[in-house]
Amino acid sequence: MDIFLTVLAGICIVVGLIGCFFPLLPGPILSYGGLLILLATDMQQFTTTELIVWGALVVLVMILDYFAPVVGTKYGGGGKWGNRGCIIGTILGIFFIQPWGIIIFPFIGAVLGEKLSGKNWDDAVKAGIGSFIGFLFSVLIKAVLCVYFLYCYFNAIF
């Protein structure tokens, strides 16, 4: 049974890492689940503190995943209209044209929001690029966390 659970945990962690790049899969949650599955084996017993900290990091990263494009819009020169457009685009992107909607819609929302506020195309596109950079940052953070979980997995089984 330990072998089955160890393999299942490894699959969850790897699929979680892949999920960092595909918005349909909740990457860090799957990877964390893999570590929890590994607890049911004799391979490794993680401390309660580690599990709580890792769980908090997963929650933080998943929240950051939705707010990073908005922050990117702000730092890209966008105003409140651009941020609102980015938020609406993020919400729409979750439901439409998966997996690309979560990437494209915040960009389009930020650009349209800035255009509705009266800004020129250059400034509106800068705000949209900021939302895209925020998205890339959130993907990077998720990937780093999942790679760390993969490291913990290999450290536990070897």
- Could you give the count of β-strands? 0
Order of helices and strands: HHHHHH
Proportion of strand residues: under 5%
Shape, per Cα inertia axes: elongated
Residue windows where pLDDT falls under 50 for at least 5 positions:
none
Q: What does the radius of gyration come to?
A: 19 Å
Question: How far do the termini sit from each other?
Answer: 18 Å
Mean pLDDT: 90
How many separate helices? 6
Please identify the structural class as seen in this structure: mainly alpha
Largest sheet composition: none
Helix percent reads: over 70%
Outline the structure in words:
- The protein is mainly alpha-helical and 158 residues long.
- It is built from 6 helices and no strands.
- α3 crosses α4 (80-95) and α3 packs antiparallel against α6.
Task: Characterize this entry briefly.
The chain is built from six helices and no strands.
Keywords:
mainly alpha; elongated; 158 residues
Protein topology:
Blueprint: H1 2-19, H2 27-39, H3 48-75, H4 80-95, H5 101-116, H6 121-157
